[in-house]
Amino acid sequence: QAQSEEKAFREEVHRQEMEEIRLQQSIEVLVQRMLERYSVDPRTVVTKGENPQPTEIEHARKEIESLGEVNLAAVEEFQKIQDRLDFLKAQEGDLNQAVSSLLATIQKINRTTNDLFITAFSSINEKFQEIFTFLFGGGDASLELVGSENVLEAGVDITARPPGKKRQAMALLSGGEKALTAIALIFAIFLTRPSPFCLLDEVDAPLDDANVARFNDMLKSLASGTQFIVITHNKRTMEIADSLYGITMEEPGASTVVSVDFPA
Length: 264
Prior knowledge:
α3 crosses α4. The chain has 6 helices and 7 strands, in the order αααβββαβαβαββ. 57% of the residues lie in helices and 16% in strands. By secondary structure, it is α+β, with helices and mostly antiparallel strands. It has helices spanning 2-38, 54-67, 74-136, 175-192, 209-222, 235-239; strands at 140-146, 155-161, 168-169, 197-201, 227-231, 243-251, 254-261. It starts with a helix and ends with a strand.
């Protein structure tokens, strides 16, 4: 939003600058016209503080007569344009000040966001390594910033080393390993900013029995501080639940919700 406002301010400054140039050109045209027609520069006219002599008046009258037709509104027009120009310059100064203030605000926001991101990234990376090791029964994994020195514009690479394998990018892992690594990252983010509720939809679907067992162990270890609502078709995951809710069709076309509470 701040960047959008900055863009609007810059466009307004540009428009004001163009208007200033146009008015300057109008003034120059009027001055040039008076110079060509009357040989008088209105910007250099100075009035005398004393009463003129009759000879001076007569001389001035002859000069006026020699000028021919005079635009009596030229001075007034010049003053109006000058006033408009002064107003635009004042507006330009206000806009430049607003742009400077906005840029300072953006820099402050970027610094704050940068610090918060680094703190959150470090915390998530630490949790990610812990949960990955727990889910895989060993190995290690990490998050790395790539592509830019500015952390707010950098990408994130995920590298992992399952037990017995070499470290490699997540894209090179098997399907089950990718799923388990993604689960580790999701829970790392969740544990960085925990919530009393967590909804998981078919998270365990791509896992084999051994990985499902580790996944369930993790859910049980976290259940003391978070209530998990899990949508699953896996029997092993259903076994650790405190309550089950399912849909059955006892009669054709009639669905019924069935719930089962397990004793503690």
